[in-house]
Description:
This protein is of the alpha+beta class. It has one helix at about 1-25; strands at about 35-45, 50-55, 60-75, 80-90, 95-105, 110-125, 130-140, 145-155. The protein has an 8-stranded antiparallel β-barrel.
Amino acid sequence: MILNRRVATVSLVVAGAVAAVVAPLAASGDATQRLYLGMNLHFTGPDTTAGTFVVSGAVADSGTADVRDLTITPAGPADTGRLSGTETYMGQQGTIVTRFQGDAFPLSGPHEVGTGRFEIVSGTRAYAGLSGQGTFEIVVDATTNQLIGTEVATVEP
């Protein structure tokens, strides 16, 4: 009985704290929002990948993803390189195009990591006028041709 009261009390305190934070943010009229995207890709050529994505937060959609002009340029004596390209997300509500840059490592093994930043450069239909930027992380397994990644961005409609 005492445990149930403590759980109820803690729940009320947490709910109150969340309301105290969320209510002013919602009332502020700030148009900036967070976008969370996950992707599952595979190589389709030496500088292209394709696959699927799902996005939530400021945008809720899913569809196909396509990367073009993918380059990795070795960066000095370390086992790293500069990563860049253009990615297009084609969802049911429209298309979002991003450009990304970052670092890839280790270049000598079949399992690589890519981290960096991206910027939304255009959108169509429901995403026309969408702008923003964020970070990405992607893990590559060249032995199974899998690229699994996430992106998190701050966007404005």
